Amino acid sequence: xxxxxxxxxxxxxxxxxxxxxxxxxxxxxxxxxxxxxxxxxxxxxxxxxxxxxxxxxxxxxxxxxxxxxxxxxxxxxxxxxxxxxxxxxxxxxxxxxxxxxxxxxxxxxxxxxxxxxxxxxxxxxxxxxxxxxxxxxxxxxxxxxxxxxxxxxxxxxxxxxxxxxxxxxxxxxxxxxxxxxxxxxxxxxxxxxxxxxxxxxxxxxxxxxxxxxxxxxxxxxxxxxxxxxxxxxxxxxxxxxxxxxxxxxxxxxxxxxxxxxxxxxxxxxxxxxxxxxxxxxxxxxxxxxxxxxxxxxxxxxxxxxxxxxxxxxxxxxxxxxxxxxxxxxxxxxxxxxxxxxxxxxxxxxxxxxxxxxxxxxxxxxxxxxxxxxxxxxxxxxxxxxxxxxxxxxxxxxxxxxxxxxxxxxxxxxxxxxxxxxxxxxxxxxxxxxxxxxxxxxxxxxxxxxxxxxxxxxxxxxxxxxxxxxxxxxxxxxxxxxxxxxxxxxxxxxxxxxxxxxxxxxxxxxxxxxxxxxxxxxxxxxxxxxxxxxxxxxxxxxxxxxxxxxxxxxxxxxxxxxxxxxxxxxxxxxxxxxxxxxxxxxxxxxxxxxxxxxxx
Length: 599
Known about the structure:
Helix 13 runs antiparallel to helix 14. The protein is about 65% helix and about 5% strand. It is mainly α. The protein is elongated. About 45% of the residues are buried. The chain has a 6-stranded mixed β-sheet with strand order 2-1-3-4-5-6, sandwiched between helices. The protein has 30 helices and 6 strands.
């Protein structure tokens, strides 16, 4: 392209100069080239209107490249915008877009939007709101997003497909699936792939697997072909719910449809198979990958760790380092949790040093893994000392870990300190009240238990019920303690009675200490028999036959008595039972558990 000289530019008509600007900007593949084009245009000493036009084009191109150049592009976009004397709606939109895609806080985009409103002219349009909503989705920032929704309604821009898609993404990312579904159902015209994928993703994030897969089937019936993004969301739903049969069907569907299994999709499959209890298949997907990034290695290491395959997890980590693949925080969550599951304190401390030597700043989850490792190994003083010198303020998970570890100790100072901090951080979290109530109940301090329950009632806090699910014939069946709602509950209770007889003949005495209520021993035994995990296992025995594996997912930690009973069931019925609780997997075979009772 001919390089214009300043004296040539002065004599050319405006439309020719603008065409030159457009041509020059289009040739810029990245931010560095864009800066070079800017310098060339400055040397031309363009007339005022043409100069403003040039800046707007540079700004738009900068916004388009912000996704790959992140902060630098956002900073440059701000500088360009500030040089434009009378920015148009196009200019405001370009800056908001640059900020929304460059990882800037949602508040930055929102401030630009408010500046536009204060200026009075130009007025925001559907693209302004769409880019603003994108920033709120990425953060996520539901508060600012709802304000934009209100603005869209007031300005009559809500029916715009760009605004509707932005709203759907916002509510789906913020896990407000009820509002997301309202937007989805109200979308005018045919719903595109982005809309279907966003709604399926929203359901997946909150673990509504039946709804996610039901919508996926509706999408197929509507003739909308899924892509890799859609399938990642569907696989995420299966992983969260532990729905192995559905996950296998989805994998087969991907192969049948010829959908490209890229890095992200492969990693999602590894995560799904690991969380559904089929770690061998997860390893098969990993080994078949031609290219593996840090996320793929981390997913495999975490998967092996939660299955208690400590040597495999640590061996894979060593292999990762040998191949010069740089680990991240997630990798070390897997490594440190593997050490915690086997009480490898010295190894855990060594890996902690390795992480710091690699220049990886520990996340809250990494600190939590170290506290868990020390607590599980009975090193309560070391754990408490570790927490008190943390450079970041410990979160509620860490204080809860300390409280659980203090249960059988006489360290009143740790109990008091941890409980105080816990209730300060999360005064409305029912889990904290239940944990403290259980702590007092285990020591028969019923007056304190009563006080905690009154405090819960006063704060309108409802206890989180233990919930277990099992997948039968592609559908998830959920149970809570003493659940009467299931249509097959009469048959389930017959199986429970048979289980109780076999357990009694095996010589097991119910661990009634696990029932933390001031009631008689007989009532405690009845309560144990109808814990959610036991109901789910009983349903698995009712509906399946050997060699079908009974797979259960529980939202809380395994009840100690149910854990012992599951070992007896596996031997008495000659069945393999796999239970995923909030911490790890338990694989029961022949009267033994893979955790070796260290959990």
